[in-house]
Description:
CATH architecture of the largest domain: 3-Layer(aba) Sandwich
Strand order of the largest sheet: 3-2-4-1-5-6
Mean pLDDT: 91
Strand content: 5-15%
Number of helices: 14
Amino acid sequence: MVDAICLAGPTGMGKTDLALRLASEFAVEIVSVDSALVYRHLDIGTAKPSAAVRAAIPHHLIDICEPWERYSAGRFRADALHAIEAIRARGSLPLLVGGTMLYLRALQHGLAPLPEARPEVRAAIDREAAERGWPAMHAELRLVDPLAASRIRPGDRQRIQRALEVYRVAGRPISALQTQHAGGPGLRFLGFALVPEDRAVLYRRLDERLAAMVEEGFVDEVRRLRAMPLMSDDLPSLRAVGYRQLWQYLAGAATLDEALRAAAVATHRLAKRQLTWLRAEAAYRRLDPAAGGVFEAVADALQASGVSRGGR
């Protein structure tokens, strides 16, 4: 008997639809593993399940904080463990669904022992960045932690700041500290990964989905976020693909076509990173949605784990 089922995969592969079908036929409750779905008001651009769907099928870790708040892998781990315990106490099985691989790893393998945030150190880094620019800060990071710098884009202010902060506080590169883990929670996970054989098909689906989101009102959603007094373009919530690019359009820094092209590129890159993460997770059973039989494979695993069938 496993303690939780994990359903991972790159964005746009149909994880949500599969999870909803499974939840309609089995005694499972869905736990979101998505760093964007935790934020309220980020709905269209995150393909968030509707309120009606969430009312019909139990979901957890969706709409749990405001978009101007900061949510972390550590907070996710604590929240997810609490949700898993409560779901299992009700006699159901947690179905972990999402593509934020950092969150999945934090839950399953534990977190690296990184130092706590130091506001004074962050403030100093911000002052330096205001004078020298974030590309220069990225160059500094490349000198002290080449591995971290290779993984972080020169324009990713939040991650550059954190990596430099860790180095200045701990005196060691964040990439070295991240190889050390505090250990997992001792739960038994059964993992499935929706992985396409043909990436071109995935990228086409992502482009079509982005176009549908725009038709649905994605630009207006970002416009409403910009109107919120506590929102700014350096918040973690705006790292969600599409949001930062449309924010730049609404700020006059890009045309709508330029913003949408940048959003499409960012979405493709996200999917590629997710696939790279999944290749390192040997325990996950890989399933190609285009080949068919995905629902049956996961359903068989649920039944083998003793989960009752019958739905709601």
